[in-house]
Design brief:
With about 290 residues, the protein is of the alpha/beta class. It is built from eleven helices and nine strands. Bound molecules: iron/sulfur cluster (2 copies). The site of one iron/sulfur cluster has 13 residues, from helix 4.
Length: about 290
């Protein structure tokens, strides 16, 4: 089973549109994973039907037993986040789950309880199984949830004998990206011709290099700033990274998103044609 992760140094480069198009072009021989757990949006384009919903617990919240509490105030004094009020009640939003209050409580009135931080889902789409998730607002540990989604997706792909695990990766270069890259055979980096696009591309290339994941580059909306497209292509050549495709600006990509469709099922315009060509190149590498 081949694992391909689609990444970009930042959001808004067209990564999810490309993932949805690849998923449609694969003709049902894949498992797809949406590892952008902070702001998932692949479900808008693949319309999954949720089969299973699972809680994701990664942090803890203190519970105060008011029958045991002697109101000594030590927990309030020691909580540097101001999360315990004068009535010895915990503010769920302000609490960081560090557990210090439970440690300092002299009468063991505080217990740290697991907290639901989000959910992950096992779903069906008309292109194959999909594993996706949503982290609750303000929760940390998105790397752990990404690892969970990726692990479940890889397990499903192996169990059902699929040829491809296609991962829509999280934006950025931090812990969630590293979790998404773990075990990948290749990374496709989607960028756009701009100074920030080049900057983010260099960072994500460095991450792929560090973890030994072979990368290739796709330049989206390459015609909106041709000079920068050339700069990116020169950088790619210097780094020995192949540019496997260029997608022109096409306003129908936005219309396709609004219609809840991947661009390749929406029309046969310039972006759709370019993506089909890129997919043919991806398949030719197997
Ligand atoms: S767990 Fe940490 S942040 Fe939360 S209330 Fe206790 S001391 Fe404050
Ligand atoms: S430290 Fe324990 S006993 Fe003291 S106020 Fe807090 S919960 Fe109550």
């Amino acid at each position: 089973m081949r694992q391909m992760v689609i990444l970009s140094g930042k959001g808004g480069t067209g990564k999810t549109s490309l993932t949805a198009s690849f998923a449609r072009l694969s003709r049902g021989k894949l498992v797809v994973a949406d590892c952008d757990v902070d702001a998932p949006d692949l479900h808008f384009l693949l319309q999954p039907k949720i089969r299973e919903t699972h809680e994701f617990q990664s942090s803890k919240l203190p519970g105060i037993d008011h029958d045991l509490c002697t109101e000594c105030g030590l927990c309030v004094e020691n909580c540097r986040f101001g999360a315990i009020d004068e009535d010895f009640c915990v503010d769920d939003i302000a609490c960081e789950g560090c557990g210090l209050c439970a440690l300092v409580c002299p009468v063991d009135a505080i217990t740290m309880n697991p907290k639901v931080s989000g959910y992950w889902y096992r779903s069906d789409t008309d292109v194959g199984p999909m594993i996706h998730a949503r982290l609750d607002f303000g929760e940390g540990n998105s790397g752990k949830l990404v690892a969970r989604v990726k692990g479940e997706a890889a397990h499903t792909a192996r169990e059902t004998g699929q040829e491809l695990l296609l991962v829509d990766g999280p934006p950025g270069t931090g812990c969630p990206v590293i979790a998404a890259l773990s075990g990948a055979d290749e990374a496709l980096l989607v960028t756009e011709p701009s100074s920030s696009g080049l900057h983010d591309l260099r960072k994500i290339l460095a991450v792929c290099g560090h973890f030994g994941v072979p990368a290739s580059i796709c330049i989206n909306r390459h015609d909106i700033y041709p000079e920068y497209t050339e700069i990116i292509e020169r950088m790619a050549e210097d780094e020995g990274v192949p540019v496997i495709g260029r997608i022109p600006y096409d306003e129908n990509v936005t219309w396709a998103q609004l219609a809840g469709k991947a661009i390749i099922e929406f029309d046969d315009g310039p972006a759709s044609t370019a993506i089909r060509r890129i997919w043919a190149g991806v398949c030719a590498k197997t």
